[in-house]
Amino acid sequence: MIKVFNHWFHRKTVAQVAVDLMFPVVCVVLAAVWLGGGANLELDRIVFYAIIFALTMIVLNSWLGMYQRVHTRTLAETRARAVLSLYLAIPLAYVVFSLLAISEVDRGFMLLSGLAALFATLVRRVHGAHSLPGSLLRHRVLVFGAGEEAENVGRVLAKSDPDIQIVGFYPSSNDSEVVVPAQVVLSQAMSLSDTAHSLKVDEIIVAVRERRGGALPLRELLDCKLSGVKVLDLASYFERALGQLRLDSLRVGWMIFGDGFRQTWRRTFFKRAFDILVALVLLLLALPVMLLTAILIVFEDGFPVFYRQERVGLDGRLFDVIKFRSMRNDAESDGKPRWAATDDDRVTRVGRIIRKLRIDELPQLYNVLTGDMSMVGPRPERPYFVDQLTRDIPFYAVRHSVKPGLTGWAQVSYQYGATIEDSVQKLQYDLYYVKNHTLFLDIVILFHTVGVVLTGKGAR
């Protein structure tokens, strides 16, 4: 994993972005030289346009979710997204290599070069060459512990990162019982540090909950770290690998003395300026869509067009969120709050469409301009559910230390859900955002949000 501005990126994601940047540039230059037949082609200008095209493709691929941290989709779906990105790239290639060229000769060379790069990229993706060989990214991990925590780490590792190779589980003296399979338990004949060096381990994950009474071989762990082997505790590992703070591995001391959870005046100022700028631009662009939506709502189910509801915001303060009404007027006629379900029968036909495309959220841009919300942050919940979730879920109130957002890390990382368990999962992503939020992470989340809207997936 590689950390950029407090946000963790998978090594494979960084490699994919690097290849997607270099490959079109190389293809364009080679194609232009070959087609030019030795003419004076001004390679510096060709490279400049090729980089513009490559960067545009990276943005497009980000919107389509090609660089997501954990891939749960099938190979067929991945290839379908790749083909879709290439179809969308054809007009982009025409714009970049035709409209930006100065002379007619250059324009023809640029367009042909761009199409050659598109064709080569298609061949590379379809034949699975988009990923670098696994041996180049293979990461050897030793898990210290053999109990329930260690078994959980092994299960998450296998599911989240196929390039991780678990060399084995080294038992701790405080393991109440060995839960992992016997064939993966390492012998204690050698010390932990000697075992790590003999197995050429890159990283050690400490999966032991009880650390008192000499449960951890601190001297040996220090020797491993000083020799270049990374040592991570459970909370730090889950934060880095999954982009979430797991509640079952979280401790108050780790939150207090660790990095993150900072809210400086600079961060507050720049986030507010960013929110105002983005909200104004989106509001101007979305006005025709919002007007059409209002007309359709009135035509199907009458007034009111907007729906106001009390939500919990920064530091627990209450405010009224504004959305387009997507449910019938009698949706909660009994006065009892209820979770919104995936196929809720209270949703109107127009409501189902605008919820799918996130159009119902657009009036919240007004909440962003008034300062009650931010563009990016945890989803604001109703006081009734906040009281329930704060009582049932530890650390739930931590999410209220930042402004709620129109979109957020949980919304782009977790599927739709409306249960206590779903709230636990989304809270773990919200806590990651609260700990690591920066302007850079806000931009990453906004890019992912476009992809979620295009594919109709993600949390609400």
TrEMBL record:
It comes from the Bacteria. GO terms for cellular component: membrane. InterPro entries: Bact_transf, EPS_sugar_tfrase, Sugar_tfrase_EpsB_2. The chain crosses the membrane at residues 21-40, 46-64, 84-102, 108-126, 276-299. It is found in: Membrane. Its EC number is 2.-.-.-. Residues 271-454 form the Bacterial sugar transferase domain. It is a multi-pass membrane protein. Pfam families: Bac_transf. One of its GO terms (molecular function) is phosphotransferase activity, for other substituted phosphate groups. Keywords: Membrane, Transferase, Transmembrane, Transmembrane helix. The keyword Transmembrane helix applies. Coiled coil: none annotated. PANTHER family: COLANIC BIOSYNTHESIS UDP-GLUCOSE LIPID CARRIER TRANSFERASE, UNDECAPRENYL-PHOSPHATE N-ACETYLGALACTOSAMINYL 1-PHOSPHATE TRANSFERASE-RELATED. Belongs to the bacterial sugar transferase family. This is Sugar transferase EpsL. It comes from Candidatus Accumulibacter adjunctus.
